[in-house]
Amino acid sequence: MQDAERLLDTALALAELHGWEQVRLHAVAAAAGVSLNDVRRHYREKDALIDAWFDRADAAALDLAASGELDGLSPRERLFRLIMAWLAALAPHRRVTREMILAKLEPGHIHIQFPAVMRISRTVQWLREAAGLTDHGLARAVAETACTAIYLAAFTCWLNEADDAVPNTRRLLADLLGTAERVALACPSFRGEAPAADARATAPRSAPGA
Q1: CATH 1.10.10 region(s) of the chain?
Q2: How many whole angstroms separate alpha carbon 189 and alpha carbon 142?
Q3: Degrees (nearest 5) of the Cα angle 179, 183, 187?
Q4: What is the pLDDT of residues 3-22, one digit of tens each?
Q5: What confidence score (pLDDT) does residue 104 get?
Q6: Cα separation, 48 vs 136, whole angstroms
Q7: Which CATH architecture is the domain 46-210 placed in?
Q8: Which pTM value belongs to this model?
Q9: Second-level CATH architecture of 1-44
Q10: What DSSP element (H or E) covers 141?
Q11: Exposed/middle/buried for 169, CB within 10 Å: 0-12, 13-18, 19+?
Q12: What is the DSSP secondary structure assignment for residue 45, as one 8-state letter?
């Protein structure tokens, strides 16, 4: 695992120097002082490095959940902190992350675009698990859709922030989660089960980070 992490760090360092588009696996191998076979053991293709980079962000969110820092918070507050922790894990290479996303969106890259959709779904599932959401049935489907939209909106805003403190992202995320909470509480059939409210919800507080 340490070798895989070192190769990922090497690829990110090269991308900072030359741009993600210019990164080649043979260059990663040379810079890391290993063979291409060593790279292949961990990454079957260049796109797998992107998955590994986002896996780090998933892990950061789960680490936050395990820390106990979210105990006693409402689902809205938990999701806010989890998504911000996910983004913070990517912050050291925000420009490279943006280039990774643009590479996936290029025409003709259908073979990596469908897996990218699955990647988004996986991240949202982990965020929801980390937040301890307990919805089910139709409410779960609606909540997942809302959570995905909120996560993507925050991620898109974050990718284009000029300020390292990302105030626009924090404000947008707080506003979207607040709206989701209000909608959930206004709908009896979803109350306690939408992305911003579950059985452990506390009384609404002011929007975090606002």
Answers
A1: 1-44
A2: 11
A3: 170
A4: 999 999 999 999 999 999 99
A5: 80
A6: 32
A7: Orthogonal Bundle (1.10)
A8: 0.85
A9: Orthogonal Bundle (1.10)
A10: helix 137-159
A11: buried
A12: S
